[in-house]
Design brief:
Blueprint: H1 7-34, H2 45-58, H3 63-68, H4 70-76
Helix pairs in contact: 1-2, 2-4
């Protein structure tokens, strides 16, 4: 018997998991660039920010993150 799952619930969790991973990745990019001098991470920041902005805009539970990061989202729009 296959487990029951709901498409909307799955997509909601997927979106929130993706947002968490992007937030973590942005921290890593910043650390690697600022502390370790690994400047090649800089090019990954704008696409990650844009993707996080899309996720935050599409999920009511992520709205507070979107509001807090609005200046960053505007910069990398």
């Amino acid at each position: 018997m296959e487990p029951e799952w709901e498409r909307e619930g799955f997509l909601e969790q997927l979106s929130r998991s993706a947002a968490q991973r992007l937030y973590k990745a942005l921290g890593t990019y910043g650390y690697q660039t600022a502390t370790r001098g690994a400047g090649w991470y800089v090019k990954s920041i704008p696409p990650a920010v844009r993707h996080l902005a899309r996720l935050a805009a599409g999920d009511p539970a992520l709205k507070p993150i979107g509001a807090a990061l609005a200046p960053v989202f505007a910069r990398y729009g």
